[in-house]
Amino acid sequence: MPREIEPSLNEKQFVLQALQEKFRLDGRQFDQYRPLELTFGDQYGVADVAFGKTKILAKASAEVTVPYADRPLDGVFAIATELSPMASPAFEVNRPTETEVLLSRLLEKTVRRSGALDTESLCLVAGQKCWSIRVDVHVLSHDGNLIDTACFAVVAALRHFRKPDTSVEGGILTVYTPAEREPVPLSWLHSPFCVTWSFYGDRGEIAVLDATWTEEQIRVASCTISLNRHGEICQISKLGGTPVEAVALLQCTSIALTKAKDFSVFLDKKLAEDTKKRNIGGFMAELRSENDR
Amino acid sequence: MPLDTSAYSLALLRVDGRRWNELRRMHAQIRTQAAADGSSYLEMGHTKVMCVVTGPSEPGPRRSAVGASGGTGVGGGSGEAAQAEVAVSIVIAGFSSVDRKRTARGDKRILEMQSTISNALAGSLHTHLYPHSAINISLHVLSQDGSLLAALINAATLACVDAGIPMTDYVAACTAGSTSTYAAGDEAADPLLDLNQQEEQELPGLTVATLGESDRVAVLVCESRVQVSRLEGMLAVAVDGCKQVREILDRVVRDKGRRMVQEGTIEKGVGVNDMEID
What region holds the Exoribonuclease phosphorolytic domain (chain A) (predicted)? Predict the structure, then answer.
């Protein structure tokens, strides 16, 4: 199994001492994210998110399937994460590393179990037909903080996604092509965002947001908090590592809430821009009978 | 739902008759398996787990990628094995819960718990004393009734103490919840200590593990939707509960030590004097 090269002792000490003196290598504040970029693809449901040099592409897709026997009224919703060797030589195909398991578990808890997508709305014919929504997460470039980036990408992709419109008449299900009927957005209930803190120092007293890969390799503990803009925690996971004061964790949570609100505003803005871009000419263009010919 | 926890507001008693700040009966034993380096058996109410520790010993040829962590590093690998690797495996018995479900081999929930326990203990164990070695912790769940992760962490701590692996302090864990769901304006919501299965399914809750008597949190896992304002109360109650759990664990270890000295299994050594042996 290939291993990631660890930062050298000098490198470690340099970063740590800088952190002790309240500096980060890229000159950011401790609670500052790298510049966030979000681009939507030409298709619906493709979101490309970049936090600095970390880049993740999420693609949502839908198909009609048979629902699970024990949940006849629910649709199927799955998030698939794959860390390919493209992102880092430590990742192998078909052998999930610990990072990958924890990442997919976190996304599952944040987006799926918190009920962000109303799965009951995916049901078409009870017990026979339902939509299966699948989000594929591809890590294109890995420079730390995969969790926050992946979560943002998944939420953005799902919010942007439109599934084909359907109708059921006399027990016959019709799925319309985009040309016949405008695709419809998913029934989305709330947008959770992950905020990951990394801790440094013997007692974990230094807390840093959005760690780069070098910073991530030398951290002593991390804590991921998922929140939506209504101030609801969807999930918290601090899975071991150096113990951190409980009071510090509470402070981290309140800062995380402001970050989640920022993300929410940013995503809403981008989605609005995208809708505007797609809707050239507005409603009038749609009503016009002329065409380019 | 078989029972409704909303009856709490009437008499301030929970489904099993406890008050908000009461732990369930906790019973623990150490050195239960003679053949193992360290072993323990722990009950938190009806949640029953067993733990066996082997090591520190030479690592085997096969290394699992998940649930093994070297030392304190969370992000990075253990590198040239300057620290002992803590490998955790969890087996959930088929008869442990009401519905006899077969757990898949690569169940992500179990893998996550393994990696959590491994990382939490690696933060307390002095793994740097045992380079190029492995500490294998195998946990067996015999009966499930809520607070599973907390019970597993406590059992693993006890077994590591029994195995004689140097550690900073006990890693003691327990759960806490809140009486109402995520309705924002509900100010009357009480935090609850040590959730059982029913409460865990119906109410928001979190699992906390702290190091020794300090307020320092090693593990904090919350898997349900809950208001941010509710977190502080829940965390405070959970940290307080962890301190109670630590006292119980400590008593178990001291009682066992005292009995072993009395029975003559071990000699009363230097430094044992401060153990208050009568």
Answer: 32-164, 191-257
